[in-house]
Amino acid sequence: MKFQDIFEYFKNPPPTKLCQEVAACFILSVLIDLGDSDFTAISQYLKSKHPAYRVSDHILYIARNFLVDEALILSYWQKQPGQGRPNQMYKISVEKQGEALQLAQLWHRYLGE
Which InterPro entries does UniProt cross-reference here (predicted)? Predict the structure, then answer.
């Protein structure tokens, strides 16, 4: 290790990997910001809007399944124009909007906003 290595690390730090708890808050934030979305759009949103953060698909699936099991988000199928099969879409449950909003705010707090 050299001093220059330390400066380079802080100049270009590696992406922060999200745990499932933070990923759940992120998913809710995306659905609040973008509205109904499919899994791919949710995953791509993190890469495009927050490149300093990464989440594995596995962790994202765990977080999504938790949110579905807890009825914070609902899924439905929607046919997209020009595509053969429908996409599974996700939306915030009307009954759990308050809880979803609180958890989404935790994502923004995590970002330091």
Answer: WH-like_DNA-bd_sf, WH_DNA-bd_sf
